[in-house]
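Handout, section B. The chain below has 205 residues.
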Amino acid sequence: MDALKSMWQAVPPATPEELAGARRRLLDGMRPRRRVAAVPWWPVAAGVAAALVLIPSVFGTGAPAYAVTRSQDGTIGVVVNELRDPAGLQARLGTAGVRADVTFLEPGTLCATPRFAGVDRTYDGPAASGADELRSLVTGSRSFDAVRVTSVRTIRIFPRHIRPGETLVVEFRDNRDARVPWLLGAWLARAGTPVKRCVPVKEVR
């Protein structure tokens, strides 16, 4: 667990339940692509509130289903309140300068693999059997560096880790839990290679 401890040093104090849940999601996120990766969620970074809202997509009279934001540091924030209109969110990301493939999934499902050729081992690679393998998997993984969950409904994209022609593939799976409404799988597809349409299948544990 030493490899995980260093990742948690930057996390501000939280309740035991929050920490336990986030640790569990961090471990899940390092499993092979055969399971939807639950990227760890972190407290909102300072300065996110100052981001410029580009084009939120509003449904009904409630909160936007999603919104795309850009910060002065070049990073892009995505708030996902409801898993609706993935094509619209994909278009918004394109407007923000990120070539993306967005899929919303029902609980207990994932996209059949392989859909694309990943840039690193985080997509459909071997499972990390211990701390050393986990560290090796994460170190130098641009898929891991390109997207981070920053709050319970928000992810932040770091375009500097995405090379020209690469596609950011993101899969949001409904978690049916107000505290953790969705799980996220995020990977980079190699430049010049196609990303196949998602064919949902039941997750096999």
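Note. The beta strands are 52-53, 66-70, 76-80, 100-105, 109-111, 147-151, 154-157, 167-174, 182-189, 200-202. Compare this with the example in section A.
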